[in-house]
């Protein structure tokens, strides 16, 4: 990667956090509850990435997401380990693509345990696709001004003759 001299990169110590070393089946088994449990941290991180357009400015938000994920799986381990392991094993062994459709009974047992012990209900179908307004305390970054170039090609003057397109518009269905 090539960067200019005026760009400062964070030190490795700033980027070092405890990793979430879990298998695909484990992450898929906990994904719905994890998404709901860490929704605030995830939304904050994604908003930062969208607004800042620079991943260096969102390192702390990314650390918060990782910390929330670790906290969630520690709570699951403490409260519903047997049910979670059963569900994870089913996902891992029942299909080649980690499909959830073969494991609905073990999913029901795990969901019941999560509701009973952690008071965390499995989100309904389409929960993560719903539009939401995210409230944040982080200040909105200043809007960058549009770049202007002194040698840019000037546009047509307002008095210039504007002929219709030779072969018609490509938006022919919009004209009536």
TrEMBL record:
Keywords linked to the UniProt accession: Disulfide bond, Electron transport, Membrane, Mitochondrion, Mitochondrion inner membrane, Repeat, Respiratory chain, Transport
Main location (coarse class): mitochondrion
GO cellular component: mitochondrial inner membrane
InterPro entries from the UniProt entry: NDUFA8
Region (Disordered): 137-162
PROSITE patterns hit by this protein: CHCH (PS51808)
Subcellular compartments: Mitochondrion inner membrane
Keyword Membrane: yes
GO biological process, one term: mitochondrial electron transport, NADH to ubiquinone
Family of this protein: Belongs to the complex I NDUFA8 subunit family.
Function text: Accessory subunit of the mitochondrial membrane respiratory chain NADH dehydrogenase (Complex I), that is believed not to be involved in catalysis. Complex I functions in the transfer of electrons from NADH to the respiratory chain. The immediate electron acceptor for the enzyme is believed to be ubiquinone.
Record protein name field: NADH dehydrogenase [ubiquinone] 1 alpha subcomplex subunit 8
Source organism of the structure: Pararge aegeria aegeria
């Amino acid at each position: 990667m090539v960067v200019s001299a005026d760009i400062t990169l964070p030190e490795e110590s700033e980027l070092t956090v405890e990793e979430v070393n879990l298998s695909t089946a484990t992450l898929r088994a906990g994904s719905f509850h994890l998404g709901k449990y860490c929704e605030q941290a995830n939304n904050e991180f994604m908003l930062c990435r969208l607004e800042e357009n620079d991943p260096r400015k969102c390192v702390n938000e990314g650390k918060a997401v990782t910390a929330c994920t670790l906290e969630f799986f520690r709570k699951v381990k403490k409260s519903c380990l047997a049910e979670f392991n059963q569900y994870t094993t089913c996902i891992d062994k029942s299909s080649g693509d980690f499909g959830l459709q073969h494991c609905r009974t073990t999913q029901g047992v795990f969901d019941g345990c999560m509701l009973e012990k952690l008071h965390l209900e499995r989100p309904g179908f389409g929960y993560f696709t719903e539009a939401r307004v995210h409230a944040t305390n982080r200040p909105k970054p200043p809007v960058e001004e549009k770049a202007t170039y002194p040698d840019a090609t000037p546009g047509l003057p307002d008095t210039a003759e504007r002929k219709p397109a030779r072969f018609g518009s490509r938006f022919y269905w919009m004209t009536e």
